[in-house]
Design goal:
Blueprint lengths: L19 H52 L23 E4 L22 E5 L19 E4 L4 E4 L4
Antiparallel strand pairs: 1-2, 2-3, 3-4
């Protein structure tokens, strides 16, 4: 039997939706999670690009060594070993500097003491920003992927 004016439960007959505060809170949580995920993904992708540049430099170094063994001298450019069109993962050409016939040490890559990091040749990528300067401690050179210690080190200039 139905009693007039009586309803079962406090909200019988009414559907309860989300409040504006609940929706905003859910949006903040979702945005935070997406930001964290994107940051992790970006970091992973950048490390993958550095790893690819390191592998490219090691491959170029092997070709330079083969050229030197075959011809008795270093190539004067990457074109002589067929790598003139090879681009780093950021879309910039790899850089090579043969020290034979070089006057002075101005163009050579240098460490924090301004001592050349190689004695045979320089081979490097300009890195993500596409800019560089000979001292690898300069801000624009920190993201470069370099060959140092005559091939004993290949990696980020900031890690050298």
């Amino acid at each position: 039997m139905r009693v007039p004016g009586y309803q079962r439960g406090a909200h019988a007959g009414h559907s309860r939706g989300f409040t504006l505060i609940e929706l905003l809170l859910a949006l903040v949580v979702a945005t935070t999670l997406l930001t964290l995920a994107f940051s992790s993904y970006s970091s992973y992708m950048e490390q993958a690009k550095v790893s690819r540049a390191e592998a490219d430099l090691e491959s170029i170094e092997r070709k330079i060594t083969l050229y030197q063994t075959t011809n008795g001298a270093l190539p004067t450019s990457l074109a002589q070993i067929g790598e003139q069109n090879l681009l780093d993962p950021w879309g910039y050409p790899y850089q090579y500097l043969d020290f034979d016939g070089l006057k002075g040490k101005g163009q050579m890559r240098k460490d924090h003491n301004l001592v050349p990091i190689n004695s045979d040749y320089d081979l490097y990528s300009d890195g993500q920003d596409g800019r560089t300067t000979p001292p690898i401690v300069a801000a624009v050179s920190r993201d470069d992927v370099i060959r140092a210690n005559n091939g004993g080190f290949v990696g980020l200039a900031s890690d050298y």
